[in-house]
Write a structure and sequence with these properties.
Blueprint (H helix, E strand, L loop, with lengths): L3 E11 L5 E12 L4 E5 L6 H9 L6 E6 L2 E2 L10 E4 L11 H11 L4 H15 L14 H13 L5 E5 L7 H18 L2 E6 L2 H7 L2 E6 L2 E6 L1 H6 L4 H6 L6 E10 L2 E6 L10 E3 L2 H7 L6 E6 L4 E3 L11 E11 L3 E8 L2 E8 L10 E6 L5 E3 L9
Parallel strand pairs: 3-8, 3-9, 6-7, 7-8
Antiparallel strand pairs: 1-2, 1-4, 4-5, 9-10, 11-12, 11-14, 12-13, 14-20, 15-19, 16-17, 16-19, 17-18
Helix pairs in contact: 2-3, 2-4, 3-4
């Protein structure tokens, strides 16, 4: 078992016509012994490059990779005791499941009884015992993925690196394999970095979630902290399905209190004016007259009848654009003036028709505010 620390890690590549592509920029993060860190971000943000730098498959241009306090930048990949599971399974088509799982152990010249024991143990753990004599093309996609995981498990490495291991599976298999990976991690207790572009996977699996964009880690927190308290506009817009509703406007002083007014100037067409919750007025008083971005999650926009305890100045009237009925919840897409936003409500509200007018309440007790210039959270 191991802990991993990345400090000021940097990696560039040459792109078309000699252009420099900065894949990883001054990256710093740590993974504790026994922790599963989910590294999430859009395609091309540097997630896989980060894994390859840790595994030694790429050389860093700057910074250090440390495993258990030892800098391993100049340590060969085979000597880092790291197991990596790739997106495309990378199984040998001519070898049986047993031989695929045992391949790394044979390279290390382990005794045959020890190889047999480890492979059978991993196969039982992964539900592959009846498949050990099959070739990969006789397996389902989920079984092939289990074989790839089994090949990593039998090595008993200090660190697991999983690079989008479920992206080639259909939706039901993804959910099933996600549960199996979570169960395996709890059982094995090995530090794991799990790369994915699927923020639902990251939230479900990670003890902590690191959100990455353009080679830079934007935020590292526990899943619910990332969800409810995004560090900047990128995280707010990337994490969550649907993503956080964002309204550009100003903090204005009015009638002895302060309000959020959407738009650049008072009186802008389609303006929304919303009262600021008393609990945060003092923290926003220094921003009066300044541009801000108001962020609210879809479930924090409520039907007017459900929020009688909230101030009436939190009410916004919107027209229904369309309704997504998803079973246990309904996403109602609304427009107020020039602003479009989505509310997420429990139950079946499919009877709403397009262009119906609804009064909704913005739960300003849970509102987040961001600086539109820097994108950083100010509250």
């Amino acid at each position: 078992m191991a802990s991993v620390v990345l400090e000021h890690l940097d990696k560039t590549f040459k792109g078309p016509k000699g252009a420099i592509i900065h894949a990883v920029r001054d990256l710093g993060l740590g993974v504790e012994d026994g922790e599963l860190l989910a590294l999430v971000g859009p395609s091309g943000c540097g997630k896989t490059t980060t894994l390859r730098l840790i595994a030694g498959l790429e050389d860093a241009d700057g910074g250090t990779v440390s495993i258990d306090g030892q800098v391993v930048n100049r340590v060969a990949p085979k000597d880092r005791d790291v197991a990596m599971v790739f997106q495309n399974h990378a199984l040998f088509a001519h070898l049986t499941v047993f031989e695929n799982i045992a391949f790394g152990l044979k390279l290390r010249k382990l005794a045959r009884p020890e190889i047999q024991r480890r492979v059978e143990e991993a196969a039982e753990m992964l539900g592959l015992t009846s498949c050990l004599d099959r070739l990969p093309n006789a397996l389902s996609g989920g079984q092939q993925q289990r074989v790839a995981v089994g090949r990593a498990i039998v090595r008993r490495p200090r660190l697991f690196l999983l690079d989008e291991p479920l992206s080639n599976l259909d939706a039901p298999l993804r959910v099933q394999m996600r549960r199996e990976i979570a169960r395996l991690h709890r059982r094995l207790g090995i530090a794991t970095i799990y790369v994915t572009h699927d923020q639902a996977e990251a939230m479900a699996l990670g003890n902590r979630v690191a959100v990455m964009n353009e080679g830079v880690v934007q935020q590292i927190e526990r899943p619910l902290d990332v969800y409810h308290r995004p560090a900047n506009l990128f995280v707010a817009g990337f994490i969550g399905s649907p993503p956080m509703n964002l309204f550009h406007g100003v903090i204005a002083s009015e009638g002895g209190g302060i309000r959020f007014m959407s738009g650049k100037e008072p009186g802008d067409r389609g303006q929304i004016t919303i009262g600021i919750d008393e609990g945060v007025i003092s923290r926003l008083s220094g921003f009066v007259g300044r541009a801000v971005v108001l962020g609210l999650r879809a479930e924090e926009i409520l039907p007017a009848a459900a929020g009688t305890a909230m101030a009436p100045e939190s009410t916004v009237k919107g027209a229904v654009r369309f309704v997504e009925t998803l079973g246990s919840e309904t996403h109602v897409h609304l427009a107020a003036g020039t602003h479009e936003f989505v509310a997420c409500w429990r139950g079946d509200l499919a009877s709403f028709a397009s262009r119906d007018k609804l009064a909704v309440l913005f739960d300003m007790r849970k509102a987040r505010f961001f600086d539109p210039g820097t994108g950083r959270a100010i509250l």
